[in-house]
Specification:
It is a single chain. This protein is 21% helix and 41% strand. It contains four helices and eleven strands. The strands form two sheets. An eight-stranded antiparallel β-barrel has the order 4-5-6-7-8-9-10-11. It has a three-stranded antiparallel β-sheet with strand order 1-3-2. Strand 5 (140-150) and strand 6 (156-165) form a beta hairpin. Helix 2 (35-46) packs across helix 3.
């Protein structure tokens, strides 16, 4: 009799293994607005019993999950995602955010004053849109756009182009998943500021961009050139820029400074 019981249990086990199979689900993740939320969702999924792999795309707003349907259902996975996203958002809102420290307000840096703040919008990745010939710059051509610079001493419409090394933004634009972690790129922008009083001022920059799951920070040194005597003082200035880039909107904010008292 004992022998018969063992055989029956073994048959049941074999039957359950035969029924189990691997499935893949692409689940929409609503209101996932930051890299930390995406990381929290992925961690929660990969910690769920029955999940073999999970890929969470912030850009597409989806979670692709490979799982064993005998251990977990798609509905249960959706609930895991919802809970993880909610907890990550609450955790972020509960943290008291510190005001952003700029070069002008940093206690370790003195002798700088704001020249202008610029909001720059990406428009095209066509080489034909470049504001100068492509062969004059180092790196791969990323794109061009426009914007506006606003400052007490310098303001106007901006036209710009950017060349870069190791830049992941083209991958983001194409909807490709970017590996987690920090990404450093070189930045070589150039462009023109056209002031309301008719001057045309060229700027050339060199610096770096640092992409993290939460922020895309940028920093540059800038030199200026113009044939307009009213702005000749800019030719002797070395500007420094600190800013941020919004990948989703294709929009950059530059805070540009020059030595004070000149």
């Amino acid at each position: 009799m004992k022998f018969i019981v063992i055989i029956t249990a073994g048959a049941a086990l074999v039957g359950s293994l035969a029924v189990a199979k691997e499935a893949t689900a692409a689940i929409k993740v609503k209101e996932m607005a930051c890299g930390s939320c995406a990381a929290a969702v992925k961690k929660a999924l990969t910690s769920t019993k029955g999940v073999r792999d999970a890929d969470v795309s912030l850009e597409k707003g989806t979670a692709t999950v490979v799982y064993e349907d005998s251990q977990v259902t798609e509905k249960q996975l959706a609930n895991v995602i919802k809970k993880a996203r909610s907890e990550a958002q609450h955790s972020k809102s509960d943290r008291k955010e510190k005001p952003m420290q700029t070069l002008a307000t940093s206690p370790s840096v003195s002798g700088l004053e704001p020249l202008f703040t610029a909001v720059l919008q990406y428009r095209s990745d066509s080489p034909d849109s470049s504001v100068i010939p492509n062969q004059e710059r180092e790196g791969a051509f990323i794109g061009s756009g426009d914007g506006a610079a606003i400052g007490e001493r310098l303001r106007g419409k901006v036209r710009w182009s950017l060349w870069s090394g190791s830049c992941v933004y083209p991958l983001v634009r194409n909807g490709q998943t970017i590996p987690e972690g920090m990404h450093l790129c070189t930045m070589n922008p150039t462009g023109f500021i056209e002031t309301p009083d008719g001057a045309r001022i060229r700027f050339d920059g060199r610096g770096y961009g640092l992409r993290s799951p939460d922020k895309y920070r940028t920093s540059l040194t800038l030199v200026f050139g113009t044939e307009d005597a009213r702005y000749a003082w800019l030719i002797k200035e070395l500007g420094v820029m600190e800013g941020e880039f919004d990948e989703k909107a294709g929009r950059a904010i530059w805070n540009v400074y020059v030595p004070a008292g000149k």
